[in-house]
């Protein structure tokens, strides 16, 4: 007897399968025989994927600048797992951990290399805030919560320190046993070339399609050599849309050259959720249909590719034994306006609507699903 069977679900590659869940894990997939305590039949009408993972969010509720509630950015919109990208450093990360245990959304953290995290806009302007031993102790205390490190390497954050905080971050990364390091890029100094040269396999560049002058493309629209070399070494690209870090133009030109993101993430927090241009992860994902990506490519970037980047080894795949985190959604073929962080408006032809999430086997309707409750 399974806990849950979802029948006749449509996958992003248009295959149709049943999925059975037992004890919070995927127990069977394909043509499932047997019974369950609860059954749902999607009748081939609705899509299902591994639970969506947002690789870059901000949800430390006590952050004075970038705060939000995990479920408001998570399961309410079909996102089963969120990774907070450096809202907290060693000083607040235990508090953050405690505050997010009651959420239905599964929350992980990238610890900010600055002790204070993002309580100010310039947490790396004072090098004495970068405290390697404090990061090591935090990782030792919360090994299942802290999945990597975060360093924000743009001029407003690092002040006069240039590339120095990143050199420190790489040393801390070695000391904690080589967790992924996510590096935010923005205005220079430091120059992106200098940043990219220091990154190694598994490191993540976030805000990868930002439209600022220090972007991944040259003025001629070619990928900068230092970024090309970094990607060849195994450095990964994360979207991190945010209020100021996504340009349709940069994404369009890059994707046309085959420079696809490894993970599509929102950089969401309460303000860009409520006022845009982020709104929710589905909204950000939908923008990628307008810049040349297919449904399977978009879904891969919030499932197995996101899980691989952050080494969430039991998530992101519809395979027996993996966590039973699932997202049920539909693709609506209708004109829908989208705006990037530069103010460019694009009329999309289709968009994603998340209807339900399953977290560790439990069925949770999204806000959109509640509005369509009779159909699912
Ligand atoms: Zn961010």
Proportion of residues in β-strands? 25-35%
- Looking at the structure, the CATH topology of the largest domain is TIM Barrel
Distance between the termini: 23 Å
User: What composes the largest sheet?
Assistant: 7 strands, parallel
- The CATH class of the largest domain, by name, is Alpha Beta
Q: What are the secondary-structure elements, in order, as H or E?
A: EEEEEEHEHEHEHHEHEHEHHHHHEEEEEH
CATH superfamily of the largest domain: Metal-dependent hydrolases
Strand adjacency order, main sheet: 6-7-8-9-10-11-12
- CATH architectural designation of the largest domain: Alpha-Beta Barrel
How many strands in all?
17
Tell me the radius of gyration: 20 Å
Identify the bound ligands.
zinc ion
Q: Could you say how many structural domains there are in total?
A: 2
| Overall shape | globular
Mean pLDDT figure: 96
DSSP helical segment count: 13
- Which structural class matches the secondary elements? alpha/beta
| Low-pLDDT regions | none
Oligomer: single chain
- Name the helicity range: 10-25%
């Amino acid at each position: 007897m399974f806990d849950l069977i979802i029948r006749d679900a449509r996958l992003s590659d248009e295959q149709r399968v049943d999925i059975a869940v037992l004890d919070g894990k995927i127990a069977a997939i394909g043509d499932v025989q047997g019974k369950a305590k609860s059954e749902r039949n999607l009748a081939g009408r609705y899509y299902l994927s591994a639970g969506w993972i947002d690789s870059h969010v901000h949800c430390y509720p006590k952050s004075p600048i970038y705060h939000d509630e995990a479920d408001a950015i998570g399961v309410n919109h079909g996102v089963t797992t969120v990774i907070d990208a450096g809202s907290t450093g060693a000083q607040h990360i235990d508090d953050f951990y405690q505050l997010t245990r009651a959420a239905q959304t599964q929350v992980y953290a990238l610890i900010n290399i600055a002790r204070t995290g993002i309580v100010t806009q310039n947490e790396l302007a004072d090098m004495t805030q970068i405290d390697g031993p404090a990061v090591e102790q935090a990782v030792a205390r919360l090994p299942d919560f802290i999945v990597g490190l975060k360093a924000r390497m743009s001029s407003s954050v690092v002040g006069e320190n240039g590339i120095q905080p990143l050199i420190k971050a790489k040393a801390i990364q070695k000391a904690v046993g080589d967790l992924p390091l996510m590096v935010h890029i923005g205005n220079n100094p430091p120059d992106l070339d200098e940043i990219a040269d220091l990154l190694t396999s598994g490191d993540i560049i976030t805000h990868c399609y930002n439209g600022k002058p220090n972007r991944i493309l040259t003025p001629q629209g070619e990928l900068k050599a230092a970024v090309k070399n970094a990607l060849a070494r195994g450095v990964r690209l994360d979207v991190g849309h945010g209020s100021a870090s996504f340009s349709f133009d940069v994404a369009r030109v890059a994707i046309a050259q085959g420079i696809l993101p490894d993970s599509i993430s929102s950089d969401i927090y309460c303000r860009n959720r409520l006022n845009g241009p982020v709104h929710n992860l589905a909204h950000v994902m939908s923008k990628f249909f307008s810049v040349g990506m297919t449904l399977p490519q978009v879904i891969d970037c919030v499932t197995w590719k996101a899980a691989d980047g952050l080494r969430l080894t039991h998530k992101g795949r519809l395979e027996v034994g993996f966590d039973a985190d699932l997202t049920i959604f539909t693709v609506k073929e209708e004109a829908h306006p989208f705006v990037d962080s530069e103010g460019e408006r694009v009329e999309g032809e289709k968009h994603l609507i998340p209807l339900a999430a399953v977290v560790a086997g439990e069925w949770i309707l999204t806000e959109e699903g509640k509005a369509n409750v009779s159909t699912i």
